[in-house]
């Protein structure tokens, strides 16, 4: 009974945010039109392509954390299938992605998948490493670009280090708790290095996508602007704003200097993200079937062998 009011509230919030974005577009129609004219088709395709690669890398990172938690037998297709459906749910409402991912992986992999709690906790190392990357980018923006308020950057870094240390020490302190197995990757030297590289790649591609979109929309796209949009996307993504989260993030990060351009940049971030999720989900659904079609059937090979011998 409690879930329905929460779901309804989240949906109404997302609709209200989209309505607000539309109102801003109407109020700044001239600036929005100019920003839209500067966006080329190739730039939009590039933004989608970058995000598709990001989604693939994010699924591989999640597969690493699951393997360390006891999901060694999970196939790559099972993990990507569960994540693809979760990304589709998250494109509409970010809070729906995590429960959908857990339920779908358990349904696809069955007993081979870790426990639901372990699957949930397996996201913590990825989140902590992404927070480290975000704080490092903010610190660079403060030092090199003089962005304010400066105290957000070290605060985010301290939080990230605290989360990482807690996640690293928890398996040793609470080894008797099955739940902490989701954090096992932080003690696995072989997988931990690969996870760090994947998260750095995810963060780097996200920065490149933000830079591209800010540039084509005619907005300032220096290190400071990219860093604050990067951080704002992470914060707004935690709120039940649905597809309206990126426009809200860009307007909050860029400010009132170019409202029309900020809205268009946010809409392009949102649209390219949704398009990338759909492309990724389509590839996950189609590629395994194409592989099956390319494999020769045993019966047809057996029938062809006598003709070859003759």
Q: Which stretches are poorly predicted, pLDDT < 50 over at least 5 residues? A: 299-310
Tell me the major beta sheet: none
Helix-strand sequence: HHHHHHHHHHHHH
Number of domains: 1
Distance between the termini: 72 Å
- Class from secondary-structure proportions: mainly alpha
Mean pLDDT: 82
Helicity level, as a percent range?
A: over 70%
| Total number of helices | 13
Radius of gyration: 22 Å
What is the percentage of strand-forming residues? under 5%
Strand elements, count: 0
Shape: globular
Topology:
Layout: H1 3-27, H2 29-37, H3 41-68, H4 76-92, H5 97-109, H6 116-121, H7 123-145, H8 152-173, H9 189-216, H10 223-237, H11 245-254, H12 259-294, H13 298-309
Helix pairs in contact: 2-12, 3-4, 3-9, 3-12, 4-5, 4-12, 7-8, 7-9, 7-10, 9-10, 9-12, 10-11, 11-12
Describe this structure as you would to a colleague:
The protein has 310 residues and is an all-alpha fold. It has one domain. Helix content is 79%, strand content 0%. The protein is built from 13 helices and no strands. Helix 3 crosses helix 4, helix 4 runs antiparallel to helix 5 and helix 7 runs antiparallel to helix 8. The longest helix is centred in the last third of the chain and has 36 residues. The C terminus is likely disordered.
Structure keywords:
single chain
Give a short synopsis of this structure.
The protein has helices at 3-27, 29-37, 41-68, 76-92, 97-109, 116-121, 123-145, 152-173, 189-216, 223-237, 245-254, 259-294, 298-309. With 310 residues, the protein is mainly α.
